[in-house]
Amino acid sequence: MTKIAPRQAYGEELVRLGQENPDIVVLDADVAKASMTYLFKEKFPERFFDLGISESDIVGTGAGFAVAGKIPFINAYANFLLGNGWEQIHISVAYANQNVKIVGHNIGASSGKDGPTHLPFEDIALMRVLPGIMIVEPADAIEMRKAVRAAAQHQGPIYLRVGRLPVPLVTCEEDPFELGKARILREGQDVTIIATGAMVAKGLEAAEELASLGISAEVINLHTIKPLDEETLLRSVQKTGAVVTAEEHTILGGMGSAVAELLVEEFPVPLQRVGVKDRFAVCAPYDELHNILGLTAKAITQSVQRVIRKNRQ
Amino acid sequence: MIQGKSLSHSELSEVARRMRRHILKMTHKAKGGHPGGCLSATDLLDVLYMNVLRVDPQNPHWDKRDFFFLSKGHAAPALYAALCERGFFPEEELFTFREAESRLPAYPSCESTPGVDMASGSLGQGLSIANGAALAAKLKGSDQRAYVMLGDGELHEGQVWEAMLTTAHYHLDNVCAIVDYNKLQLDGRLDEVKSLGDLPGKWRAFDWNVLEIDGHDLPQIEKAFAQAQAVKLQPSVIIAHTIKGKGVSFMEDQVDWHAAAPSDAELKIALEELK
């Protein structure tokens, strides 16, 4: 299966957008080589601004660009940008409703060997509590390109989650993409697997394995975590009656929490969340860290078996 | 009226007197707000809004406007008084300040108030915003300028110093920061809470052009804005020495008036002094 790094697609699409729209400006906090915004810098140096290692400042500067009618994409590692810059995002972007595109890089286990200081597993939770900010995590490089384009066209603040390492392609060029609209990638009857980002490929892998065990799993690519596509999720869960969520993020306050909150109010069914279980990571290569943290197809398969067992009891 | 009105100093002085009366009546009616830090900022905002800023009250989002960001958002009543005097909304609306459905919330909100370009109230954020707007203006080849007012206590916030580096690095001569240096903050005298030390020296060390003035002397204020505009390739900061509560005898230089609304009796005395 072909693998491409989401950040590569992000950086390339940003250049294409820059060619089409002179209002797009790119700000980075000294990680342009990692975020791939150096591609934009090479092409449009006058529209690229390195703010240095100042994540609070980059958020405010981005908001100032938006006040003056520009479309700023602000880039830094997700944990530093959203951690150091949270209060600035809270007031200068969310409350002020400014058209800032917040791009968090190196998400999840991307920099596994760097360990907990460099592993953002809390960023979705940090953004979910802020009114008015859309949260998007594409499943692969193809979807990343569409998401960057859609983010530029969307009027309003948006948080885009970008991974560093190659992930398998699970979508096609011709697949439609609409912000806020979940995509059913595989239809099934017994359980709904709701995944986002790099975990979508693992959800599909789990569905294959489950099929061999006689379990028919529906797999939904939830690329937009906020606002939730409640209609698509509820329709699927009303059919299957069981849910497993999977995300490269803590299970506290992330995508799985959002789905659980929806379902417990609207259509309670057995549910399990695959994600980081309220712990810090360790220093380990990406795949090994995913195994240690239980971010695997196997963990999804086991969770599916658990929710189905609960339904039978 | 897009250009500044070029009011005479006696006219400016009359506007400042009215603004102070607005501030006291607003905070009195709302039973809340920060009159001390509003009254220290009044003369600066008076000159800025009457004679300096190119803004259009009929078209607040005019794409060639100058920008002003009130980073010390707790001085919102002073900003509202200035916007009212410049013609953004009628005087009677001032007295809806802090009411639930008002366009004039306790702290500035760009979603609510005509003429306000950014939310503030969470301290430290305004200079970064001004830098972004000023960089955008340069990119457009526009002569728009970005002004930002900071409190002195607000300078404790680290983001301000990050932003100071940015302004200087990009040679943003279209940014003018104003420090309302009234030397008092919520917990007491600034020098007792956490001193700023050699404040002009600190800004100079960050490669800013520093103008130090009496923030209640209208000719000095006007001259400082003109000097700031004349400096090229370097941002300017006006460090304005002010008196918290300026204009009301019992409020002047009193920590207790940082956040306290005047009573009926206090309002009466204050308005009498500002007749």
UniProtKB/TrEMBL annotation, chain A:
SMART domains: Transket_pyr (SM00861). Its EC number is 2.2.1.7. Its cofactor is thiamine diphosphate. Transmembrane segments: none annotated. Residues 4-169 form the Transketolase-like pyrimidine-binding domain. Keywords: Thiamine pyrophosphate, Transferase. The keyword Transferase applies. It is an enzyme of class 2 (transferase). Pfam families: Transket_pyr, Transketolase_C. One of its GO terms (molecular function) is 1-deoxy-D-xylulose-5-phosphate synthase activity. Belongs to the transketolase family. This is 1-deoxy-D-xylulose-5-phosphate synthase. It comes from Desulfosporosinus acididurans. The gene is dxs_2.
From TrEMBL, chain B:
It comes from the Bacteria. SUPFAM superfamilies: Thiamin diphosphate-binding fold (THDP-binding). PROSITE patterns: TRANSKETOLASE_1. One of its GO terms (molecular function) is metal ion binding. It comes from Desulfosporosinus acididurans. Residues 18-269 form the Transketolase N-terminal domain. Gene3D superfamilies: 3.40.50.970. The keyword ATP-binding does not apply. Keywords: Metal-binding, Thiamine pyrophosphate, Transferase. The gene is tktA. Its EC number is 2.2.1.1. The keyword Transport does not apply. InterPro entries: THDP-binding (IPR029061), Transketolase_CS (IPR049557), Transketolase_N (IPR005474). Pfam families: Transketolase_N. Its cofactor is thiamine diphosphate. Belongs to the transketolase family. This is Transketolase 1.
